[in-house]
Amino acid sequence: MRKPFIAGNWKMYKTVADAVSYVDQLTGLVADVTDVDVIAAPTFTALYAVAQAARGTRIQVSAQDLYWEREGAFTGEISGAMVREAGAAFVIIGHSERRTLFGETDVHVNRKAAAAFTAGLTPIVCIGETLAQREAGDTFEVLDGQIRTGLDGFTGDQVGQLVIAYEPVWAIGTGRNATPGQAAEAHGHIRTRVRQWFGGEPAERCRVIYGGSVKPDNARELITQPDVDGALVGGASLDPKAFAEIVARSRGRV
Ligand code: PEP
């Protein structure tokens, strides 16, 4: 059985002081949660402070991005080794905001995920279709391309460790979430492709989480769908109580 995985993507919110205070509040709220992986993804500037504040708690830390080179003249970029040194265990890769606003492609996603593994980080690889692609009936084709290129060259063992976040672009930050049926259909498709392309064992181990306007009141029905192993939460993760509520609603599945 896959352990549920609930990650909060704080995007470009929270000062270092806000971030540390959040961790202090969340720590108590999830103190007894041993059956769910609870992840916080702060900004780069707060990463080290959050990792320090989270030591010895149930909270694990993720970066929101990395650059694939180890070091060098890449102004403004941060490597996997740096992210790891700051205390992160995970890194979000290919978020739709990175793809849409910063021109990231599936090839970039592939390089970044490879760099994450090299640095000892677990990638959370985001995929998902736009509204136009869904309405054109292209959802599965889009997901297939993102999986094929994004995970190209990875071993079954690596894919088994991965977290894949299915985030329909039309559901991110819009308040419009996928129906439980739409989520189950897409997640089933993703797991089938992982099975076909990487094998049965990786497909059983790999966690496929849903993202897109997850809130405390819709979390349970989404997270309990077949093949949905948790959630990547944006807006609702900014409030520790709402985030802890989402964690609570994912429990009892291990
Ligand atoms: C996200 O940022 O990955 C996300 C899913 O955001 P929201 O929950 O706000 O839709």
What does this structure look like?
There is one protein chain. This protein is an alpha/beta fold and 254 residues long. The chain has a single domain, classed as TIM Barrel. It is built from 12 helices and 8 strands. The chain has an 8-stranded parallel barrel with strand order 1-2-3-4-5-6-7-8, surrounded by 8 helices. Strand 7, helix 11 and strand 8 (230-233) form a beta-alpha-beta unit. The N and C termini lie close together (6 Å). The relative contact order is 0.16. Phosphoenolpyruvate binds next to strand 8. Phosphoenolpyruvate is lined by residues 9, 95, 167, 172-173, 211-214, 232-236.
Bound molecules: phosphoenolpyruvate
- Class based on secondary structure composition and strand pairing: alpha/beta
CATH superfamily: Aldolase class I
Major sheet: arrangement of strands: 1-2-3-4-5-6-7-8
Distance between the termini: 6 Å
How would a textbook summarize the main sheet?
8 strands, parallel, barrel
Give Rg in angstroms. 17 Å
In total, the number of domains comes to 1
Which architecture per CATH? Alpha-Beta Barrel
- Low-confidence parts lasting 5 or more residues at pLDDT below 50? none
- Strand element count: 8
What is the H/E order?
Answer: EHEHEHEHHEHHHEHHEHEH
What's the average pLDDT?
A: 96
- Indicate the overall shape: globular
Helix content: 40-55%
Which fold name fills CATH's third level, the topology? Answer: TIM Barrel
